[in-house]
Design a protein that fits this description.
Pfam families: HTH_5. By secondary structure, the chain is α+β, with helices and mostly antiparallel strands. It is 59% helix and 16% strand. It is globular and about 45 Å long. The two termini are 19 Å apart.
Amino acid sequence: MNSVFKALADPTRREILIMLQKDNLTAGEISENFNISKPSISHHLSLLKNADLIISERNGQRIYYSLNTTVFQDIVNWVLNFKKV
């Protein structure tokens, strides 16, 4: 869960997640929306993937990224079941 919250703490990664809500995208398509280097986008995608927030799938020469909705459901359940001690 810590890796999820660490990944969500960055505004660029949150913006990537918002983009992936609409469509599955390649790293190149994602990078077109930011004024940062492609290696930086790859780093953000790696952190999101390591937190299981996104899934990658190869289609020929391209790798498409999509949301892993299961993790988001787990986060919502955790928040809804959170109890103060």
